Amino acid sequence: MVPSADHELGPQNLGAPSQTLRRERRDRSPEHAEPSRFIPHVQGLRAIAVLFVVLYHFWPGRLSGGYVGVDIFFVISGFLITGHLMRELEATGGVRLAQFWARRARRLLPASLLVLLFCAIVVASPYLFPLSALPNEVREIIASTFYVENWYLAFSSTDYLALSGEPTTVQHYWSLSLEEQFYVLWPLIMLLAAWIGVTFFRGARRRAVITTLGVVTLASFVFCVIFTMTNPAPAYFVTFTRMWQFGVGALIALVPMLRIRNAIGSFVLGWAGIVALLYAAFRFDGQTPYPGYMALVPTLGAAAVIAASNTARWWYPTRILSIRPAQFVGDISYSLYLWHWPLIVIAPSVPFWGLTIYHRVALLALCFVLAWLTKKFVEDPARAWKVLTTRPPRVTLWASLVAMVLVGATAAGAWAINAPAYREGVAAIEQLRSDPPECFGAASVLDPACSDVDFGDQVLPAPGFAAADMPSDQQCFVQLNDSRAVTCEFGSDAEDAPRVALIGDSHAFQLLSTFQRIADENGWHLTTLFKGACPWSTTPLSTPGAFGAACADWRENAVEVLDSGDFDVVFTAGLSTTPFSSSGYDSRHDAAVAGYREAWSGMLHRGIPVVTVVDNPVWENDPNKCLRTQGVGNCDGPRDELLTDQDPLKDAAEGTAGVTLLDFTDVFCDHTTCFPVVGGANVYRDEDHLTVSFLDSLASQYTAALRDAIAAGVPGVPRS
After folding, report:
1. Tell me: the pLDDT tens digits for 395-406?
2. What domains can you pick out in the chain, each with its CATH number?
């Protein structure tokens, strides 16, 4: 049990209070004894923060930097919590930690656990959620329940700002986990600082706290900048890279001179903060190195709005943020944040629900309704529930732990119920790969003998399990800031075996299982080199920071492997929409074409041919979301929207001697329409990656192209 503030020993007893205090009833928390000051414009700032995040998730292309809303929340939390803790410190000489944590639990856990329970129930239903996603969903629900989701995502190298992939229903709990960790660590840091001030600096409690928090803030910021440069994906989630944002809010609360009450100064500062926030929301995107030093923009913007304290005129931002609609959104901001993301993830799987603008607006309205209901009937009643507020804090804390265990058990139960079906799905994919139906997949288009075969509504693998139909050798695929040229070897080890190299980004990696089979069946030796989002080219990416540098380093390392190997042919593939730099050319496209040709030239000059393939269509949303709820014919997409106008890899290959270009566009699409299912085969495992089962149906075409390239070599260039 944590000692109370009047304990004789330890940091809880930090000197006598400066004035005679009225003894409060033991059932009243420090919040009642020393109420927090309600600041309307800060509540309005909450509204801006949550709207940024929600609109970013609903329309990421329209508000590309809306993720900075969480940064605003961190600054607000640092400001409010630090102010409250400091008032209690100065009034009582300590902080009743158990009371503080119990109050936080009553404020945050009921709504949070309600949404987590909802997610656990939903993912247990294979009719509403893809079965292939169940293991990761269960793990993340449990991590979110115990407020370690941010660390789970950091250790799993999740990229929050990635343009593709399938996040879970609870991925947004990373910020809530980080806030809870702040609530645990921050009062301990303040208590220690205050104790040092009282013990060693003649009672300079406040000065010691300010100095300590200033040092923590600066150290966290430096760590944030360095870690973002070296390892940006986990840096987004790690507690210590974000602590400085809480610290900025804390310093505003503790240093009166930082709060501007002058009319002109407040007006300028407030609007400057608003402009900074809008700039970040509309100009930042997934390519912005974040958090790092760029996080200063929304952090200082939020701090400026908080610090602008004058409300003299209606056109001041502090007054505008205090209007009733802004206050309402601020009031429901917590529940709105909780509800919006699971609904976005789940909605496409609901029968007869689409992704049109009307569906999105209706879903957004539903989010507001659920948030209001949760605030009125869950948040507010739980915070004042006498069963907990009139008893010692440990009752609240134990009750919270029991509730968390029950939610975690529900998630585990979802796995237990569906585990047999999950294992059957895995076995079904293995069976499909080993013994596909006649005329399956691409054969239905390419083989004249299959022209009359009708697969009806057959979809294999099932839409709920397509995401699992991917290469299993993940150790061969490096990502993020890893620049190692990791090679994997497959197939024949005979000295005279033809040697094939497969190199490129994730669109090359998706071919791995198919090429393993080709190598095994033909007695070839296969060497692979893959890096996510980094095609084999010499043109730099437009992505700034550590990732762009890692891609360049990986390419150099990969070239060393290729130069040292005795290969007979090199196969490469790449995403057509890769963000290349213009690199001194008239356009990014021209630069990308030149970069591919330059990369290939090293092989071609040695007489080693190159084989490549036109990129497959890229969908805005995973077609499986549609296939789970609608008929196959209702999930087609327009060709002119799914295919890029200019594929630089295609243009680089055309007219280049020694380069063979494969084009399967007519397998994916007809003249007007692209199809998610071809010859009974489920083509896609997500928005832009193909299932292994479908790629296997193209194996004969890949084999023929490689064999012909090996036989032909490079015209006019002998093998060296």
Report:
1. 999 999 999 999
2. 47-338+348-416 (no CATH), 443-712 (3.40.50.1110)
